[in-house]
Every structure is written in structure tokens, then in C-alpha cells.
Specification:
alpha/beta, FAD/NAD(P)-binding domain, Methane Monooxygenase Hydroxylase, Chain G, domain 1, five-stranded mixed sheet, globular, binds succinic acid
Amino acid sequence: MNLPRRLAAPQPTWERDVDVVVLGSGAAGLSAALAARPVRSVLVVTKDVLSAGSTQWAQGGLAGVLDPSDTIENHVSDTLAAGAGLCDEAVVRELVREAPKSIRYLMRLGAAFDPERGGTDIALTREGGHSHNRIVHSGGDQSGAEVQRTLDESAIGAGVDVLSRAFALDLVMGTAADGERQVAGVRIGQTDEHGQLVSVGIVTARAVVVACGGYGQVFASTSNPPAVTGDGVALALRAGLSATDLEFVQFHPTVMWRGSDATGQQMLVSEAVRGEGAILFDAAGERVMVGVHPQEDLAPRDVVSAAISQRMAEAPGGVDDHVYLDATHMGERFYERFPSITAACREIGLDPATDRIPVSPAAHYACGGIKADLDGHTSLRGLFAVGEVSSTGVHGANRLASNSLTESIVAGTRVGRDLAWELPDRVSVEPEFEDPMALPLLNPARLREVRAVMSRHVGVLRDELSLSSAAGALGAIARDMSSVKSSSDERASVEPSRRSWEGTNLLTVAVAMVAAARARTESRGCHRRVDYPDTLDKWVTHLDVTLDSVGEICVDGTPD
Ligand code: SIN
């Protein structure tokens, strides 16, 4: 298949040195930058502007035990239950213990979370899989925007430097005094506002923190914004690291359905709407979640998405591509509690106080990623990973709602604080022997095909037939990409640009995800195999995916 081991770009023409470079500017990256900054020079590299990632769009909020009638034990057991046997309990316990502190920290930084109606205590709501009300929110359904605003202002105010429209192409490697491989920096493609290449440079640093988020844009329909293109996972694979649990992509049960051909970022209809008592109905007027799970409409997300997909496949009332969410019991209170969702409903001529909202599942969150601990350490010295790009053991096979922003703040702050205390030694940059311009890039025009293949064949419900079709189609796209580069027709080769780098990263992640999904012959969490419906004890294990020296994806960890 020959996926590229470097992203094509011209030779670097500039260099810059800092103590810590952070790739990505969402909650995890900015928390790390802010915590390291008091004593370190810190550069945040974002391929767009600070708020272009998923944090800005998060609706639900942050989960943490703040109600005296709730307990750490409850939050731990809800997280473990959602994670379907693949969470690391010790890491979950650590996260849950630090969650309330991280929320109070954000408030001290200036985040305004909604108070209870008519009161001053902070309001706590519930989402799928939670046994208690423990989610703080802001602006009703604009929680992520408040977290992003708070961290943007705090990081800039603290003197964190930002390099915008700067694409992190690949890691730059070095060798430590003891002969161990260590990261020495990152190669950057600076672009203009249209994503066209302006220059290439190297940022050297003693620590590189990858916080590039997930890869929802690998699917045709997703709640993720356009910038979420798997850049961190692809960069790590090219650097020889393994990525874990890639088969576990969480599909949010309810994004607003705007027609069967709607593609790209879709409006989320927060799980908090079901937390406020909304109910799912099919087009024939039957309830979707009755008899499926004891928590019914507030079952964990994987259960609700699978039930909706199953119901849509049965096409009740002749409708096979959406169901309906009924929140009319809230009446006009809906407008105040969910202002963004209200605005989106009005755009399609609906009034959520009186109308049912058409919804369907869409790709939402990558439970897997670069293997790291809660302090961000990866298998490569000097490289740290935090937030959605990482796989720390908190989420297992299915993330519990609103644990992700919490994890980003906790892990990001821990990494930044550790780097403030101590930095890895400096290593010098190794010369590159390969000309990166000789490597192929995906023609951005083919990205539509990649996404269509992923949504058609690697969605909520999968089987060997659909996954092998996906592998075949992606393999053909990868082969075309390589043959264009080796053809003598120079006009055929693809120019380095933000779009072609993103496309190449998405293709790499898609191939890796399909390989992991094919290898896991069971159903668990958000990986549902129609041909292997059971959850099997022998599969209480993680799959590690790597990119080998000839650009083939390899999967390790399958049980005998
Ligand atoms: C939601 O508001 O439903 C999304 C929250 C999350 O993904 O944790």
C-alpha cells in the first residue's frame, strides 16, 4: 500500500528554538501550554486559528463529582461501565479524583458555568451513562466555547506564543547522550489563509506536546469541525509510534439530520437534551430505547447509537436514515437551556418546543490514539500526547459523556506542570537523508471518496464484508496516490498544501482504523460487528497499529 513515511514539503528555510512546542490549541494543548509557561518558553502551533478544533464546539460540558450526594466511586464505576472492559481502572480513578479540582481551576481562570435556575449553586446536569447529575455547563449548550475562551485568554495573558496557520508536518528526531532515540523538534509548513504553502521551517524544542485532537473528518458525516483530520495520530505513526484502540470511534447518537446527502460537520443535539428528559422515537412513532437498556434514552452512547442504527435499518414508517428526538415536554424552557440547538432548529424551520427534531448518529470522538499515560508520556522520549489524540486508558472501548474536556484539562495541566518542573535534555537534530518532496500526497479531490467509503462501510455497524470493501477501496486510493508521484507527468503530482497534508493524514488514519476494526472479531463498546455480535473475554486486550518501514499498516495484539 505504501503510505508515506513523511509529508512532502520543500526543504526548511527557517528555524526557531523554544523549550516546549505544543501542537494543537484546544483544551488539552492550551492547558499544557499555560501550566508550562511560567518558567518555560512555550510555542503553540495551530494549523488554523486557536479556536478551530473540537473544544469550541463541545456542548455538554465537563464531568466531575461536585454534588455531595454523588461519589468518586459512582463516577469511576459509570466510566468503567461505559468503557466496556477496556478502561485502565487506576487511570480512571486518578482522572475522576482530579476532575472536581480541574473544574474549580477553570472557574478561577474565569470560566463562567451556569448556576442552578434561580439559585447561585453551579447547575449539574446528566448525560448518557451517568448515574448522577455531575456535568457542569456554560451558556446552556456552549460549554466548549467558554472553556476555549477562558484558556485562550489565560494562555495569551501568560505569555504563551502562538504560531497560526502552521501545519505540524513531522517530528524531527535526534539521539540522546545514552544513544536513545529522542524527539528534537517538529517540521512546520507555514501556510496562508487559503492553506497554500508559504514556507517550511523547523521548530526545535526539548519537549513536543501533541494535542491535535481526533479524526472525525475521516467520515462523511461528523459532529467535528473541518480541522479535525487525524494530524496527530498520522504524525505519530510516521514517527514509528503505535496507535491504540483506533477501532473505537464513538458515534454520537443525535446529530441534527438535514437530509441523507448532508456531509461534513453536522450540528450536535447534545446528550444533555436527553438528560433533560427528551425521548427518541422512530418515524412510525414507536420509542427506540424501550427494552434495549435499563437506562433507556440515557444508556451509554454506544448502546443508543447501535439501537438507532438497528431501528433505521428496519425502516419503520418507510424512513431508514433518521429518527426523532422529542423534547417538547420542556416547552419554551428549551430555548434558554439550549440556545445553539434552538437556533439550528429554527434554521430548518422547526420549533423544538413543539416539534420533534430529526436526528441520526454521526462520528464524534476517537476513543483511541497515541498511547500515553495521564502525564502525557509516550514511548518516544521528549514526546507527550494529551487530549483526544491520546489513548490513556480513561475511555476504553467507549468514552463516558463529558469525560473528554475533563481529561483534557487534567492531563494537559499535568503535562505542562511536569515540563515546568523538568525538561528532557536537549538533543541535536539528525540530518534527513530522504528528500521529502519525493513522497506522494493525496490529491484533495479524492478525500470525498475516502470519507464516503468510511461512512458507508465503517460506521456504527460493521462486518467483514463491509470492512474488506473499505480496505480494498482505500488501498486503491493509496496506490493511485503513489503511482501519480512516480509517473513522469509532472502536472499529475500533487502540491504540498494544508488540504493535501490533511488528506494524506486522513487516508493514513482511515487505513489504520479499518485494519484494527477488521482484526477485532467481536463487538465491544463503540465497535459493533454484525458478524461477531458477542463480547468475548479473550478480547479484553488492546490492538496496537504501526506503520512499517515500507509504509504498510501492521496490527499487533490479536489474541490467539
Ligand atoms: C454532548 O453534548 O452530547 C456531547 C458531550 C460529549 O461528547 O462529551
